[in-house]
UniProtKB/TrEMBL annotation:
PROSITE patterns: RT_POL. InterPro entries: AlkB_hom8_N, DNA/RNA_pol_sf, Endo/exonu/phosph_ase_sf, Endo/exonuclease/phosphatase, RT_dom. This is RNA-directed DNA polymerase from mobile element jockey. Keywords: Nucleotidyltransferase, RNA-directed DNA polymerase, Transferase. Transmembrane segments: none annotated. One of its GO terms (molecular function) is 2-oxoglutarate-dependent dioxygenase activity. CDD domains: RT_nLTR_like. Gene3D superfamilies: Endonuclease/exonuclease/phosphatase (3.60.10.10). It comes from Paramuricea clavata.
Length: 916
C-alpha cells in the first residue's frame, strides 16, 4: 500500500483563490440506512436534491453476493467494507466522481467496521491541504474494551494523517451508538482533537450518528432529513456556510443525427452515386482515401457531426413526480415536524411510489420493446436489474502531473508507445511488387455483401467515423467498392494508411485504478472497413497455418478454453494415477503481452511457417507505420506512431500472437497454450529433482529473444502430490532473480484449480458469482417481468456463468453438486415461490444442472471423436479407451489400445467416465 503524501496526490486548484475560505467544503450526507440495496433509488434522489458530494453509509447490510453494479449511484464512485462474520453491519462511502479519492486500506482494522479515504477536491479553502474521511459503525454490543480499541484506532489514524498533512481537515462520521456503548465524545476530543458537530436528533430524541471534525474556523449547517426508506435513523445533511457553485450536469458531445428520415435522404444520394472514379484509381491508398472523402462528405451533408448538450441521465424510473414527492417529504419534515400529518402523508407516498417505480417503468416503457427492439429491451432489463453500470474512474488518476483528461490521455499514449520504442521499425517491401497472388486470396462482391450485412450496429465506429449502421444498411452499394479496395490491396501488397490508425480506449482492470501502467487495459477501435478486410485475410492465413501451428495452442477455430483445461487436467490425472510421482505446474504470464510484440519477429515466424509471400507482404504492410491516439472520456491525445505491439481488438491479433509463440515449449510434452497464456507441467518421479526451473530459464530466454518479458509477479507455480511420504521440492523457480510464488489455488482460463484437485474453491467462486445475480432476478421479478422473460434472463445471465467450462470440473462430489444445484433451486423459488423444485422445472422446461452437465460431457466427448478440424491432442486421448483396473492379470482378449485406471479420482474424470 502506497502511503499518501503531497507528492503523490493531486495539487488543489487555487487559480482563482482571492482569500481564505473562498470555496465551500463538500456537502456530506450521513445516514444509517439499515440495508442499502432496497433503498438505492431513493438515496440517489435525496443526494441529487440536496447536491450532495459525499455520502457516508452505516449498516449497509451488504455481503459478497451483492455486486457493486446493484448499489451504484450515477456520477458517484463507491467504496464498501462489508461485515464478514455475521449478517448486518457494514459501511459504505460514495464520492462524487470529479473528487479525487483514494482508499487508505492500511488505516483499516479488521476488528473495526470502518472505511478511511483520502480526498482532494479540485477546489478547497486555501488553508486546507487535504481531507481525511472516515465512516465507522460501532455496534450496540460494544463494551469498554471495544471502546478503548476504537479510541486508539481513531487517534492513531488522525495523527498519522496530520503528520503528512498538517493543514488537513478530518471528518470521522458514522453510527457510534453512544447511548448503549457509552462511547464518550469528550474523551475522544481529548485524545484526537475532534469535535462532534451534529446537534439534531438522528434516532428518536437521541444523537447516535456523529460527525467528528478538527475544523475550528469553518461553520457548518447541520440539518435533519427524513429517514432513507424504512430506516429508523434520520439522515443528516452537513454543509459549510459558503455559497456553492452550481454544478452543471450537462456534457458537450458530438453526435450524428441517424434518424430514419436522414438516412433515407442519404440513401437516395448514395444509390445514385457513380463510383467509376474510385474503381479507376490504381493505388490502394488513394483508392480508400477517395472513398472515405466521398462518404464523409455525404454524411456531413445529411447528418453532420453536431455538438450536443447531454444531461447526465437519471435512472429512468425515478420520475419527476417521485422526485417532487421526496422533496415535499423533506420540506414537510422541516416545516411541520416528524409527527405531523403532512410529513406522514408524504413519507408514506414516497415509500409506496418507490416500491412500484420500476414496475411502472417496465410496464409503460420497456415491455413493448421486447418485440419491437430486442437489443434495447435487453439493455433496459439489465439496467432495471442492476446488471450494468458505468462507473467513472478517470478522476481517480488525475494528479499534479496529469491535471486534466487531455493530459492523462497524452501520458497514457506516451507510455504505450514507449513500450516498443526500442524495437526496430518494420519496413514495407519495395522490391517484391511482382509477387504472385493466388486467386483464392481475392474476394467477390457476394462475400463482402454477406459480411457487411452481419455487422453489429451497436459497435462504435473507428477513426474513419463511418457508423456500422451506414455500412450495413447500404451493403449492396458499398460491397463492390470495398471488394475493389481489398483486392487491389492484396494484389499490390499495400494496406491503406488511413486504415492503420486506431483509437485506444483504456478499460480499468481494477476499481478504482491506481496507476496507468498497471491498472488499465488498452482496447483499440479500428475502422470497420479495416476489420472487414482483416476478416478475409484471417481466413486465408488460417487455411495456410492451421495445420502448422502447435496442436496444443487452443485459441484456434474448433478449439476452446474448455478443451485446454480438460487436456491439462487429463495429463495431471493420468500421471498421478500411475503413482510414485508428483506434478509440478508453471502458470506463466507475459508482461504487457499484446503491447510488447516485435513486428519483425512475427514476419520471421511467418517465413518459417512458409506462408504465401502475398500474405506475408500484406501483413507486413498492415503492421507497418501504424498510428494510435488515446481517448479518455471526451478527450483525445495526439496521434503517435508505434514501432510494435498488436492492437487489442483487431481480428488478426490472436492468430498473429499464436504464431509469435508457436515454437514456445515445442519440445516439452506437458503444455497448453491459449493465446498469451502458457502453462507447463512436469511429472516428477519420487525422490527425483525437478527440471522445471531449467525449463523456466529457457522460456525466459525465449521471451527475451523476441522482445517479450515474463512477469515474475504474476507467474505462479503449484505442486500436486498424493504421495504418502512427499519430500518438498528444494529447487525454487526464479525469473529475473525473483522467486516465483508457490500457490495452493490458481485461476486458469476462468476456472480455479487446487493442489488437491478438488473443486471446492471453484464451487465457492461460482456460487458467489451466481448469488450476486440472484439479487437482480428478485429486482426484475418486482419490476413485473413475466415468468417466461425471467427464465430467459436466468438462463442468459446466471446459468451461463454457472456452466462455463463445466466438462472440466464435472467430477464433483455429491455435496458440491448439490451446492451448484441450489443456485437453480433458489432462482426458481424467486420465480415460482409456490411450486416445488420438480414442478417448477416441468413448468419452465428447464433441466437439472446435474443433468445438463452430464449431457455436456457426453456431447463434449462425442464432438471430439467426430472432429475433423486442426490437430487436437484431445482426439488422441478420447481415441484410447480407459477403464478401471479390476484385476492384476493380463488377458489375451483385452484390446491393446485399452488403458486401466487405479484411482477413483481419474475414473471420475470426463475423459474416462464419459469415454464409452
Amino acid at each position: 500500500m502506497v502511503t499518501p503524501t503531497l507528492a503523490n496526490t493531486p495539487t488543489i486548484s487555487t487559480s482563482y483563490v482571492a482569500r481564505d475560505n473562498n470555496f465551500p467544503l463538500p456537502t456530506l450526507l450521513v445516514a444509517n440506512v439499515r440495508s442499502i440495496i432496497n433503498k438505492i433509488d431513493e438515496l440517489e434522489v435525496v443526494a441529487q436534491i440536496n447536491q450532495v458530494e459525499v455520502i457516508c453509509i452505516t449498516e449497509s447490510w451488504l455481503n459478497t453476493s451483492v455486486v457493486d453494479s446493484m448499489i451504484s449511484l450515477s456520477n458517484f464512485i463507491q467504496f464498501r467494507n462489508d461485515r464478514t462474520y455475521s449478517c448486518g453491519g457494514g459501511v459504505s462511502i460514495y464520492i462524487k466522481e470529479e473528487i479525487y479519492c483514494r482508499r487508505l486500506e492500511h488505516f483499516e482494522d479488521s476488528a473495526i467496521e470502518s472505511l478511511w479515504l483520502l480526498l482532494r477536491p479540485k477546489r478547497l479553502p486555501r488553508s486546507i491541504s487535504a481531507l481525511l474521511l472516515a465512516v465507522i459503525y460501532h455496534t450496540t454490543s460494544s463494551g469498554a474494551n471495544e471502546n478503548f480499541e476504537l479510541y486508539n484506532h481513531i487517534q492513531r489514524n488522525v495523527e498519522s494523517f496530520l503528520s503528512l498533512h498538517p493543514d488537513g481537515l478530518v471528518f470521522v462520521t458514522g453510527d457510534f451508538n453512544p447511548v448503549s456503548t457509552l462511547f464518550d465524545e469528550k474523551r475522544l476530543k481529548r485524545l484526537s482533537g475532534l469535535t462532534q458537530i451534529i446537534n439534531v436528533p438522528t434516532r428518536h430524541n437521541a444523537i447516535l450518528d456523529w460527525c467528528l471534525t478538527n475544523a475550528k474556523k469553518v461553520v457548518f449547517d447541520v440539518s435533519q432529513l427524513p429517514p432513507i426508506g424504512s430506516s429508523d435513523h434520520n439522515a443528516i445533511l452537513i454543509k459549510s456556510h459558503k455559497d456553492r457553485l452550481e454544478n452543471s450536469c450537462n456534457k458537450r458531445v458530438c453526435k450524428r443525427d441517424l434518424r430514419d428520415s436522414s438516412i433515407r435522404h442519404f440513401g437516395q444520394t448514395i444509390t445514385s452515386t457513380d463510383w467509376t472514379e474510385i474503381f479507376e484509381i490504381p493505388d490502394p491508398n488513394m483508392k480508400y482515401r477517395r472513398f472515405n472523402e466521398v462518404v464523409s462528405a455525404m454524411m456531413d451533408c445529411f447528418f453532420p457531426n453536431k455538438p450536443t448538450s447531454v444531461r447526465e441521465s437519471d435512472k429512468p424510473w425515478m420520475t419527476s413526480s417521485l422526485k417532487s414527492s421526496i422533496s415535499k417529504r423533506q420540506k414537510s419534515l422541516h416545516k411541520y415536524g416528524r409527527n405531523s400529518q403532512a410529513y406522514r402523508f408524504w413519507r408514506n407516498r414516497v415509500q409506496r411510489d418507490v416500491k412500484v417505480a420500476r414496475r411502472k417503468y417496465y410496464a409503460n416503457s420497456v415491455q413493448k420493446l421486447k418485440s419491437a427492439n430486442p437489443s434495447r429491451w435487453w439493455k433496459e432489463v439489465k439496467s432495471i436489474g442492476g446488471l450494468s453500470s458505468r462507473e467513472s474512474w478517470v478522476h481517480q488518476l488525475l494528479s499534479e502531473v496529469n491535471p486534466t483528461c487531455e493530459d492523462l490521455a497524452e501520458s497514457y499514449n506516451g507510455y504505450l508507445v514507449g513500450l516498443t520504442s526500442h524495437f526496430k521499425p518494420l519496413l514495407e517491401c519495395t522490391d517484391d511488387q511482382e509477387t504472385e497472388v493466388p486467386n483464392h486470396l481475392l474476394v467477390n462482391i457476394g462475400q463482402v455483401y454477406s459480411v457487411l450485412r452481419r455487422l453489429k450496429t451497436t459497435k462504435s465506429p473507428g477513426p474513419d467515423d463511418i457508423p456500422n449502421r451506414i455500412l450495413k444498411t447500404f451493403a449492396f452499394e458499398f460491397a463492390p467498392i470495398i471488394m475493389d479496395i481489398y483486392n487491389t490491396s492484396v494484389l499490390q501488397g499495400v494496406f491503406p494508411d488511413q486504415l492503420k490508425r486506431s483509437i485506444v480506449v483504456p478499460i480499468p482492470k481494477v476499481s478504482p485504478p491506481q496507476t496507468i501502467e498497471d491498472d488499465l487495459r488498452p482496447i483499440s477501435l479500428t475502422a470497420q472497413v479495416s476489420k472487414v478486410m482483416e476478416g478475409f485475410m484471417l481466413q486465408s492465413l488460417m487455411s495456410e497455418v492451421g495445420l502448422k501451428l502447435d496442436p496444443k495452442q487452443f485459441a484456434l477455430p474448433g478449439k476452446s478454453t474448455t478443451q485446454a483445461l480438460v487436456y491439462l487436467l487429463h495429463l495431471i490425472h493420468a500421471a498421478l494415477d500411475q503413482g510414485h510421482c508428483s506434478v509440478r505446474i508453471l502458470f506463466s504470464d507475459f508482461k504487457k503481452g499484446f503491447d510488447l510484440v516485435d513486428h519483425n519477429v512475427i514476419i520471421d515466424e511467418l517465413l518459417k511457417l512458409q506462408v504465401s509471400p502475398a500474405i506475408i507482404r500484406w501483413i507486413k504492410s498492415f503492421l507497418t507505420s501504424r498510428e494510435q491516439c488515446v481517448k479518455i472520456g471526451p478527450s483525445f491525445s495526439s496521434w503517435k506512431p508505434v514501432n510494435g505491439g498488436l492492437p487489442q481488438g483487431i481480428k488478426l491479433g490472436p492468430l498473429l500472437f499464436a504464431i509469435l509463440v508457436n515454437s514456445l515449449l515445442q519440445d516439452w510434452n506437458g503444455r497448453i497454450k491459449f493465446v498469451d497464456d502458457a502453462t507447463a507441467l512436469e511429472i516428477v518421479p519420487r525422490c527425483s529433482p525437478s527440471l522445471l526451473p531449467i525449463l523456466v530459464n529457457d522460456v525466459s530466454q525465449y521471451a527475451s529473444s523476441r522482445g517479450m518479458k515474463l512477469n515474475s509477479k504474476k507467474c505462479k507455480e503449484m505442486t500436486i502430490s498424493f504421495l504418502q511420504y512427499h519430500l518438498p521440492l528444494d529447487n525454487a523457480i526464479y525469473i529475473n532473480g525473483l522467486p516465483v510464488q508457490s500457490v495452493s489455488s490458481f485461476k486458469l482460463l476462468g476456472v480455479l484449480l487446487r493442489e488437491d484437485l478438488s473443486w471446492c474453491d471453484h464451487v465457492d467462486y461460482v456460487i458467489k458469482k451466481a448469488n450476486s445475480r440472484l439479487y437482480a432476478l428478485r429486482k426484475l421479478k418486482k419490476a413485473g417481468l413475466s415468468d417466461k422473460d425471467l427464465v430467459t434472463i436466468y438462463s442468459s445471465f446466471i446459468r451461463s456463468r454457472i456452466e462455463y467450462a463445466s466438462p472440466a470440473w464435472s467430477s464433483l462430489t455429491q455435496g458440491q453438486s448439490d451446492l451448484i444445484e441450489s443456485i437453480q433451486r433458489r432462482a426458481l423459488r424467486i420465480l415460482l415461490p409456490e411450486m416445488s423444485y420438480q414442478n417448477a422445472l416441468n413448468y419452465t422446461g428447464l433441466k437439472k444442472l446435474s443433468t445438463r452437465r452430464h449431457n455436456f460431457c457426453e456431447q463434449f466427448i462425442r464432438k471430439l471423436k467426430l472432429d475433423n478440424g486442426p490437430i487436437n491432442p484431445l482426439k488422441d486421448v478420447v481415441a484410447t479407451r480407459i477403464h478401471p483396473n479390476t484385476h492384476n492379470y493380463n488377458l489375451r482378449s483385452e484390446s491393446s489400445w485399452s488403458l486401466q485406471t487405479n484411482t477413483e479420482r481419474f475414473q471420475n474424470f470426463i475423459t474416462v467416465k464419459y469415454n464409452y
